[in-house]
Every structure is written in C-alpha cells, then in structure tokens.
Amino acid sequence: MRALLARIVINTLALWLVSLLYPGVTFTPGAGLLDYLVAGTLWGLVNAFLRPVLLFLSLPLNVLSLGLFTLVVNGALLYLVAAATALEVQGFVGAFVGALLLSLVSLFLNWLLRD
Prior knowledge:
Blueprint: H1 2-21, E1 25-27, H2 33-57, H3 59-64, H4 69-84, E2 87-89, H5 91-112
Antiparallel strand pairs: 1-2
Helix pairs in contact: 1-2, 1-5, 2-4, 4-5
C-alpha cells in the first residue's frame, strides 16, 4: 500500500513539474490538488495496464523503429489522460514532448526518492 501511494505521489509530482517546465502540457487554470492527484493516479493506471497492451500490439513497429515507437505510444497515452482529466495538452507534438519530459522527470524522481 505504501509503494502504491509513493507511485501516485511521484506521478503527480512529475506531472506538476512537466506542466511547469513545458508550456505544451498545462493544467486548467482552476485546477487544485485533487485534479493533480487524479491525473497522476490515472497516468499511473494507464502506464500499468494499457501501456503494456499497446506496446505488445505495436511490437512490429517498435522493432522496425528500434524502440522509438515507444515514444509515440507514450505520447498517445498522455493525450488520453489529458482527455479524461484537467490536464491540457497542445496537440500531439505537445503530448509527445510532454511524455518524453514526463519519462525523464519520473526517472529522476524515482531515483531521488527510492527506498
């Protein structure tokens, strides 16, 4: 349970930092802490359940692109999360760059806050 809460907090912090760093990914002006937590939780759930299925289905494209198609899948998933939450993404390029930054920030936060 503690690990799950830690993942939600890390995802929420990563989304918040990316929304501050990159103007293509923002939250609606009236967004509060609950909106950030919902977006972070949904991002974690999408990465845990939907991302492996999409990566498996896109395996031939991933092999042909030497793994770079994974970035496209991550961008599509961020666009999906933005459609369901208070997160706003400026087109697919914004989702693509935002997902790349989100991956880097999450990697850094996981490294910083590891057990």
